[in-house]
Structure formats: C-alpha cells, structure tokens
Amino acid sequence: MASLVDRIKRFLHGPQGRQARARAERLARDPRTQAKVRGILARLRGGRRH
Fold first, then answer.
1. How far is Cα 49 from Cα 29, in angstroms, rounded to an integer?
2. Contacts for 11 with CB less than 8 Å, ≥ 6 apart
C-alpha cells in the first residue's frame, strides 16, 4: 500500500495535480487573494492573548 506522501506525489505529477498547482500559483499572485490572506492572518494574530 502506498503511503500518503507517495499518493500526494503521484497526484502532483499527474495532469490534475499540475492543474491544481497552476491554479494555486495564479491565486497566490492575485492581489485580492493576498489581501484576504493578510486580513485572516491579522485577525488570527490579533485574537491571541499570551
């Protein structure tokens, strides 16, 4: 039985994995997506009390 890591590697090297990677890279370059992520991270950091 293939380990989970092996199955992920096989997926990423296949056609669907390449499409998913290309979509993720495109979303990462989008300024709107970057702003959303910064907002989420700011809320997460701001809510922590040490």
1. 32
2. 17
Instruction: For the chain, give the number of residues.
Output: 50
Rg (alpha carbons) of the chain, rounded to whole number: 16
Q: Give the separation between CA 3 and CA 28, rounded to whole angstroms.
A: 29
Taking the whole predicted model, whether its pTM rises above 0.70 is answered as: no
All residues at 6 or more sequence positions from 17 whose CB lies less than 8 Å from its CB, including other chains = 11
What CA–CA distance (Å, rounded) separates 21 from 15?
Answer: 10
Query: CB under 8 Å to 13, separation ≥6 — which residues?
Result: none
pLDDT confidence bin for 2, thresholds 50/70/90: confident
